[in-house]
Amino acid sequence: MADIKLMKGNEALAEAAIRAGCDAYFGYPITPQSEVIEYLMMERPEDRTGMIVLQAESEIAAIHMVYGAAGAGKKAMTSSSSPGISLKEEGISYLAGSELPAVIVNVVRGGPGLGTIQPSQADYFQSTKGGGHGDYRLYVLAPASVQEMVDFVDIAFEVAFKYRNPVMILADGIIGQMMEKVVFPEQKPRLTDEEIEEKYGDWVTNGKRNNKERNIITSLDLDPYKQEAHNHKLQEKYRLMQEDELMYEMIDCEDADYILVAYGSSARISQKAMQLAREKGYKVGIFRLITLFPFPSKELNELAGKVKGFLAVEMSAGQMIEDLKLAIEGKAKAEHYGRYGGVVHSPEEVLEALENQIIKG
Amino acid sequence: MAKVRGAIVVDTEKCKGCSVCIPTCPTDVIKLAKDVNRKGYHFLYMENPDDCIACTNCAIVCPDGVISVYRVKV
User: Fold this and answer.
1) pLDDT tens digits along A304-343
2) Would you say the C-alpha torsion A7, A159, A294, A138 has a positive or negative sign?
3) Which regions in chain B score pLDDT beneath 50?
4) pLDDT value at position B1?
5) Which residues of B touch A31 (CB under 8 A)?
6) Max intra-chain CA distance, chain A
7) In 3D, which of A185, A184, A207, A210 has the Cα closest to residue A196?
8) How far is B63 from chain A (nearest CA, A)?
9) A115 in contact with B at a CB cutoff of 8 Å?
10) Do B41 and A34 touch (CB under 8 A)?
11) Is A8 touching B (CB cutoff 8 A)?
12) ∠A212-A215-A221 over CA atoms, to 5°?
């Protein structure tokens, strides 16, 4: 039977990880994400499913513990907030280079630097354009509710293992700290070594049997031609993700003249702004990004032919707007609105920006 | 009729400084403190304790249930 609970986003994510059959969590506390590791420590999943929870000595240690666990074919997860994710970027690049599946959760806070502990969406570039070194991409999911914090954990692990690529859940301080009703799925069993090999292939380094080639997991190849071929393989993977794993939501876009493009908690705020705008007689719809990479360029381009303007609503100085502008190829007007550095915009402010920058502007 | 006076006790370590409670106070008693808790959040405190009427609005809206309200007749 499904469980219904009232929970904080961070705690719900932690519980969802246990239920998704996650094998290991390595983390380091940082506000506003600390409840993930706090909940896991209190819940003692080692008694429930055998899942390992460890507080590492640093973020860098945590991500490399994930690298090790992922190399053994285990479902490994880590979480942090913006400054901590910057520290993890080295390991994330290595995970992508070595083609290892892992789930990384970023509960974004205001930056740059240590910044603040209030919510922000200023890590869009870092998450979708690479963040670490090299030509790699993460599959990036942006939950907009506590329920999605739960649902996306399982999706994240599935995609991570299907493509052997790290997946990022890009939440923000609001989603992480917000209390909402959530419905939990049934407990999934953790996979055994044999089941992992059967389900995901025999790349796993879980011990060399006599009749088997030795599996090696590395991101290093000193032959540039081999490295180029490896990069082609990675790019092909990202192309397949674009084709098969793209997710977005269109709310009241059928008759809309103006579209609010948003993700995460900005999409929630935009829903109220849309309601206020419709009361005023403006036909406004919302295009909510669920995956930030892959980005729904084709879908936005098609929509651009039918509408008068787009407003990108994000809690940053304007990051997602760049992808939006590339996608719509100048077919319609596109502007950015957002408060940032830890300040959250109100629906009234979004509506005012829509009126001034798009409708009258 | 006896006058009712109230007082609130805040679990400062659990308060996340979301400020949902502040506009619900009819007598402007509560504010966020200059100090922060272990997580770094400015927590709630009684700025004007004499004005509290123990209406419990703040405790009702608190999403994390960190506020307890006490009521005394004077």
Assistant:
1) 999 999 999 999 999 999 999 999 999 999 999 999 999 9
2) positive
3) none
4) 61
5) 39-41
6) 73
7) A207
8) 6
9) no
10) no
11) yes
12) 140
Please list the alpha-helical segments (H only) found in chain A: 9-19, 34-43, 45-48, 59-71, 82-97, 124-128, 146-163, 173-177, 193-200, 224-244, 264-279, 297-304, 320-328, 347-353
Interface A–B counts its CB contacts (< 8 A) at 15
Q: How many residues does chain A have?
A: 361
Give A39's DSSP letter: H
Complex ipTM value: 0.86
Positions of chain A with pLDDT under 50:
none
Record the tokens describing residue A95, joined without a space.
Answer: 């995970």
Q: Are strands B4-10 and A179-184 parallel, antiparallel or unpaired?
A: unpaired
Q: Which residues on chain B are in Cβ contact (under 8 Å) with A8?
A: 64
The region, left, alpha or beta by phi > 0 then psi within -120 to 50, assigned to residue A9 is alpha
**CB neighbour list of residue A232: distance below 8 Å, 6 or more residues apart:** none
Domains of chain A: 3-184 (3.40.50.970), 249-359 (3.40.50.920)
Place of tokens 């004007």: B48
Q: Contact A117/B41, CB-based, under 8 Å?
A: yes
B28 touches chain A (CB under 8 A): no
By C-alpha distance, the chain A residue nearest B38 is A31
Question: What pTM, to 2 d.p., does this model score?
Answer: 0.94
CA–CA dist A119, A142 (Å, integer): 14
Is the N-terminal amide bond of A112 cis, ω within 30° of 0? yes
Architecture per CATH, domain B4-73, reads as 2-Layer Sandwich (3.30)
First-to-final CA distance of chain A: 53
Chain A residues whose beta carbon lies within 8 Å of the beta carbon of residue B40: 31, 117
Domain ranges of chain B: 4-73
Give residues 42 to 61 of B whose Cβ lies within 8 Å of A: none
Place of tokens 């301080």: A173
Distance from CA of A233 to the nearest CA of B (A): 43
Task: Kindly determine whether residue B41 and residue A178, on different chains, have CB atoms separated by under 8 Å.
Answer: no
Cα A335–A338–A343 angle (5° rounding)?
A: 175
Query: Cβ of B63 and A179 within 8 Å?
Result: yes
